[in-house]
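ok here's Type VI secretion protein, seq below lol
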Amino acid sequence: MLSASAWAQESNTLVMQAEQCRAITGRLERLACFDHVFQTPVDEVASAPKQNVPPSWQRAMQAAGGSDAAMVLVTEGEGKGSNAWVTLKALNRTTRFEHDAKPILMMSCIDNLSRVELALPSSVDDARIQVSVANAPPEYLRSDDSGVLMSSARGIPAIEMMKSMARAPRLVLRSNAPFADGLQFDAGELNDALSALRERCGW
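and the structure came out like this:
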């Protein structure tokens, strides 16, 4: 049995830890934090939402979340047939997401398919949005089932988008969706990073 003072101290510790969890912007990361603090059975609660999050979203968040750099290049293996992806974290001080969480723009060559994706800190209702960069023709990004990932068409449309995105040191998205319009990214080293994708996807 805990004494009254010990119980009060433990309760205060839990409250402080829970307050720290509230500051986490990512939905899944915040849930995992609360599970840890309150010792929720993880197999019953935390694993269910993760199954609905696409692997591309996980790649983007893990790459960008593990570094303070504006751009991160990740490779798996060498040469054609292996995988590589580049993430760019939005530079905007304010965003349309809670706590001004930053969307992640990801360009990738996965399983010999080129793609451009926008990983979002939390889900949106838009099924499809229009985006354009560097005065290039607009392209459509489609949402996945969970609403946290917007994806371009694969292959040539994605490659053309990547080329447009690498033309200037500062990449600005224009979109009919308020959460994406005006997002800015540091693309100063993007062209060099894309060489890893070119090599693997053969463009």
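fwiw The chain is about 35% helix and 25% strand. kinda neat tbh
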